[in-house]
Design goal:
Blueprint: E1 2-7, H1 9-13, H2 18-26, H3 33-48, H4 54-65, H5 69-80, H6 85-88, H7 91-96, E2 101-108, H8 109-116, E3 126-129, E4 131-133, E5 139-142, H9 153-161, E6 165-171, H10 174-181, E7 187-191, H11 198-201, E8 206-208, H12 211-217, E9 232-236, H13 241-250, E10 253-257, H14 262-265, E11 268-274, H15 281-286, E12 292-296, H16 302-310, E13 314-317, H17 325-339, E14 360-367, H18 372-382, E15 387-394, E16 398-405, H19 411-418, E17 423-428
């Protein structure tokens, strides 16, 4: 009895609805293009939300397209750049689970296969519709005998396939939920990284804002150790929206508040604040989940910087109030959270480690006392874990170690590293 992962294509594997994008390519010179774009989008949403049968929606959209093979080539190029961020960074998962991953879509093989093939997904595991063309290469219809062109098509297909094992469905639309409703799959995960449809989310077993979240809750290998959507980014003060756009793209859970309150700071992993709204040293000491502060302005006191350092909380600030800090601060925060880079921090020792492929990266922050590095390496040696790269920097308060290892390990290793005396903070990056 195996496991199977049934993954939708449009607005799930990719950020967009492919037929909507195809219309923008094929109709770009049409005098009524905006009106037709809206019609196609309305048909898409109506079927995805369960207000119109999929068969009716598909027929209406294809009829409006006026597309040909050349337009499809342009679409494929476009879609390759629109793969959902969290799917893209977890390409190794698809390689390692090539036999269990199935793309099941009401879209069309002509544009799906070239996009997902780059992610090690087998051609025979791609189930979708196929276009019909005339002699000049114009789309004139599609194969209506394919169950995926019909209402309830995904249910019909899975009944025919008769897969044995636990089946998980991941998608954004009503046709994906129908698999759960039919009893054919174990769990349905409403995928909301690109669009959130209320009628679908309400019926899901689990809401997954990213593929990282899906992998995390199912204890599957993933590119990052902890989904960003589970990390709260508290925003207080006058912070430019451009800075928050970068954090949203990374998937962080943004929370705006008028002032820094203890209960919200204690839930946050990231704090963005301006010069007039900074936490007290005592608040930072009590914020056990806090990892990084991005201050859009100058840190008000040396005590705050030192207290944060002693608590293992890094601060990036902009004492010159550079107008480009809307880009500078979030990039520094993201580089620290993703790769452990501390360059330009005002309270941590400087470290810019190169990214190592096919390795796991662990961060250990500890009080600057002799012998900690030896204790860290003793844990790895005892568990026969090979170190491929290790970096240590210090300041008078802390030691900051990044270790890259090239093998798997059990949770006992992580617990032992956390338990080393004088440890302040420890985390697995990827």
């Amino acid at each position: 009895m195996g496991r199977y992962y049934i993954i939708d294509f449009d607005s799930t594997f990719t950020q967009v609805e492919a037929l909507d994008e195809l219309a923008r390519i094929s109709l770009k010179s049409h005098p009524d293009r905006e009106k037709i774009y809206q019609q196609i989008e309305d048909y898409t949403n109506a079927s995805m939300e369960g207000r119109l049968s999929f068969a009716e929606s598909l027929a209406a959209r294809v009829r409006l397209l006026e597309a040909n093979r050349d337009h499809l080539k342009q679409l494929v190029t476009h879609l390759k750049k629109k793969v959902s961020t969290s799917f893209s960074r977890n390409s190794v998962f698809f390689k390692n689970h090539a036999d269990e991953v199935l793309i099941v879509s009401g879209g069309f093989k002509e544009f799906i296969i070239p996009v997902v093939a780059e992610y090690h997904i087998k051609k025979e595991n791609i189930y979708a519709n196929t276009f019909e063309f005339d002699e000049e290469g114009k789309i004139i219809g599609y194969d209506k005998s394919n169950p995926l062109s019909q209402e309830g098509g995904k249910v019909k297909l899975l009944r025919e396939m008769n897969l044995q094992g636990d089946i998980f469905g991941i998608g954004d639309g009503y046709s994906d939920f129908q698999l759960k409703e039919s009893g054919l799959i174990k769990k349905f995960f409403a995928y909301t990284e690109n669009i959130e449809r209320k009628s679908v989310v309400e019926k899901a077993d689990h809401i997954t804002p990213s593929f990282d979240e899906f992998l995390y809750i199912n204890k599957l290998p993933r590119a990052i150790s902890y989904p960003k959507n589970r990390i709260k980014c508290l925003v207080v003060g006058n912070i430019d929206e451009e800075a928050l756009v970068q954090m949203r793209k990374e998937g962080y859970n943004i929370r705006h508040k008028e002032q820094i309150e203890d209960k919200y700071l204690q839930e946050a992993g990231v704090l963005f604040c301006d010069e007039a709204n900074q936490p007290t040293p005592e608040q930072v000491e009590a914020a056990g989940r806090l990892k990084v502060i991005g201050c859009f302005g100058k840190v008000q006191s040396r005590k705050l910087a030192d207290t944060a350092c002693a608590a293992g909380v890094i601060i990036f600030d902009d004492p010159k109030s550079n107008p480009r800090n809307t880009d500078f601060i979030p990039k520094r925060v993201i580089a620290f959270m993703n790769e452990g880079k501390t360059h330009t921090s005002c309270n941590f020792p400087d470290l810019q480690p190169p990214r190592v492929s096919n390795a796991h990266r662990l961060i250990h922050i500890h009080k600057n006392v002799p012998g900690i590095l030896a204790k860290i390496n003793e844990v790895f040696a005892r568990h026969n874990i090979n170190i491929v790269g290790e970096f240590l920097v210090t300041n008078p308060q802390i030691g900051y170690v990044i270790t890259d290892v090239n093998t798997g390990y059990d949770t006992q290793v992580l617990e032992e590293l956390k338990a080393i005396e004088q440890t302040i903070k420890f985390r697995l990056l990827y």
